[in-house]
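Need the bound structure for zinc ion, inputs here:
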Amino acid sequence: MIPQWLRKRLAGKGRGARGGTCPRCKCYVITGLDHDDCALPAVVDDTEINHMSELLARLRGVATFDFTQYGGTWELRYRYPVHIKAEREFPVLVAHVCGIRWPATAEPHLSLTRSAPPATTLESPPF
Ligand SMILES: [Zn+2]
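Answer from helper R.:
Posting the output first, comments after.
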């Protein structure tokens, strides 16, 4: 007889994500295991974030997860750098941090355009 945990896994329900509320701040969150093997529990916000929001979260040390569907259940899958660089296949969710809601669509605030350098002529050298 196979162990109960293996039965659940074989049924495709072993690591399925579930909705609930954070016991601390009462926000709606999604919980689940973050991998098939050696998994850790993950708690994420329910808002899909764009690339810039993910970058902001990762710079702050907050993990991000793919929200995948496998065999009729939804699962959370930790996003390693190789996943972040690649094209997105699934909605990306950010780990829940009480009191912080990551913007779904952050935009860069830096301007990468340069102003034109001052015109120089032979009559007015720049020094
Ligand atoms: Zn919370």
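Comments: The helical segments are 4-10, 51-59, 81-85. The CA atoms of residues 16 and 74 lie 5 Å apart.
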